[in-house]
Each structure stands twice: as structure tokens, then as C-alpha cells.
Amino acid sequence: MSTASAQDVIESIEEQRAIYSDIAKKIWGYAEVGYQEEKSSKLLQSILDEAGFQIETGVAEIPTAFVASYGQGKPVIAILAEYDALPGVGHACGHSIIATASAIAGAALHRLDPRTKIITFLVLIVSIVLAFHTLGMLNQR
Questions:
Q1: CA 43, CA 5: separation in Å to the nearest integer?
Q2: CATH classification code of 6-140
Q3: What is the pLDDT of residues 93-137, one digit of tens each?
Q4: How many CA atoms lie within 13 A of 4 on its CB side?
Q5: Contact at 8 Å (CB) between 65 and 59?
Q6: Would you give the DSSP letter of residue 85?
Q7: Percent share of the chain, pLDDT over 90
């Protein structure tokens, strides 16, 4: 894949607006609470897999957490998102949009410069254990 210009990436995202909107709506509709986001996790993984990312599942021993990575070298860019819903409220937290936007951002940055190592880190909840796990992974790459 050749390096795209920023304008190319913006146009590509805009062309796929309906698809991305549908993804956010699906995650909204799933409204899966923490540690139970099986459909949301699989949907996000499939999007990033199609974009050429390698998927590591079960991160930090959380079945629905995953890391999607692409490339090697520096800089390493990490994007963190949450996709859990709130019990009894659903996605009033906006995680359905945050997760979709994070997946789009990872794919777009990869497209902007495929030589850059992109790590899109999507996880259901930010915890100290997960933060240390992520830092360890980034230091190893």
C-alpha cells in the first residue's frame, strides 16, 4: 500500500461514513455491559482485521479485551477506547462512538503512513492492571 495524503484519508473516511455510522449504531444496539461485550469486541476486531491489523485477544486475561497492531518501528502510536455500556442506561457514556472512532483513527493513521507502527488498543475498562500490561507490550515492540 502506498502512502496516502491526509486529504486522501479524510476523503476515504467520508466515503465510508454510512458504514462507520452503522458500526456505531450496532455497538449502541448491543449495549453490552463491562466484561460482556462479546458482539462489540468481535465487530471491532473484524473491522481492524480487514484493515490489515494483527489481533491479540484476551488481553490482561479479559476475554473481550484485545490489541490490534500493525507494522513495526517507531513512532508507536497507541489509541485507547472503551466499548462497554452502562447497566440500565446503555451507551449514554458515548463508548459506542468512541470505540468506532478509535477503530477508524487506527485504520486511517495506518493508511496515512503504513510504515508507522500503529497499535490500536481497544478495551472495555481502563484499570491499573491493564495500563501496566499495555506499557509492557509497548516497551517490547
A1: 28
A2: 3.40.630.10
A3: 888 999 999 899 888 877 776 666 666 544 333 333 455 555 566
A4: 16
A5: yes
A6: B
A7: 28
